[in-house]
Amino acid sequence: MTAALREMLFFPVTPFRSDGTVDHDLLAEHLQSGLRFDPPAVFAACGTGELASLSMGEHRRVVETAVQSCGTTPVFAGVGGGLGSATAQAVAAQEAGAGGLLILPPYLNEAPQQGWVEYYSRLAECTDLPVVLYQRNQVRFDLDTCRALADVPGVIAFKDGLGDLRQMRELVDELGDRWVFCNGLPTAELTQIDYQALGARSYSSAVFAFFPEMAVAFRDALVAGDAGRAEYLLATFFRPLGQLRDEVPGYAVALVKAALRLGNPGFGPVREPLVGPSPEHLRRLQVLIDIGHEALASSAPVLPASAPA
User: Does the keyword section mention Lyase (predicted)?
Assistant: First the structure.
């Protein structure tokens, strides 16, 4: 499973029908569409998949659909929240056939470091599945906490959602031979060049969920060391997308689903408290996607005079 955590990872959305139920047929199509681009691993029912809004039954069935749809591609299931619910999600994910877990921080984020050690240790020990830790929001691990968690059997990777490169350098230097390190910042392509320089080659790509051709083109430029091509794609597509994403809280998820709905309204809305983009933001999103397709068709990495408004 460690080998599956390489380069760009696929985080699918969870489509909802008009009556609010999960559309598993469309979820399977969504997964199979992404698998055509050969992602090394799929992370189902995670942040982009709106884990926080899923019931226990919905979570289990989403994981089951992902496992059934992905064949030999490993599926990591998102778990999180209170210890009781997160434990139940982890056990259900293992029973559903998941190959690993991504543990999101619990809802109560005010705790000492020893609390994080105990919380993540309990979850890592409740199944036989390998575990990816995820620090984000108010949850920040210090070096001693990471050392302790590195000794917990099954903990194989660390996903960062904070963006403190000094901390990441310290952790990679200390634990880089024991953990895979993953860039989990929103629109991770924007920072992946810096993370890669630190030794964190793995990253979550929300863009892959709705524009896999763009995500793969950027990944290929990174792998080939083609800095010009990577910068061209950042300037024409990823940076303007990041600017739009930052205008409204929750757009890191809502824009992904909205982009999919532009092609297929059946993906449905995001669940509350997230909100979908305004008509003007939808227009800008469509313009960005159109510009992205034009950028992919261009072989010369010539930077534009200005980013799209």
Answer: yes
Feature table: binding site: 48
Which tens digit of pLDDT belongs to each residue from 205-246? 999 999 999 999 999 999 999 999 999 999 999 999 999 999
Annotated binding-site members for pyruvate:
48
The SS3 assignment for 155 reads strand
Task: Give me the sign of the Cα torsion angle 227, 132, 20, 253.
Answer: negative
| pTM as predicted | 0.94
Residues with a known catalytic role: 134, 159
Angle at 288 between CA 287 and CA 294, to 5 degrees: 90
pLDDT of 2 higher than 90: no
Domains of the chain listed by start with CATH number = 2-211 (3.20.20.70)
Q: Where are the alpha helices (DSSP H) in the chain?
A: 24-35, 56-70, 83-95, 113-125, 143-150, 165-175, 192-198, 207-210, 212-224, 227-233, 239-245, 251-263, 279-297
pLDDT of residue 77: 98
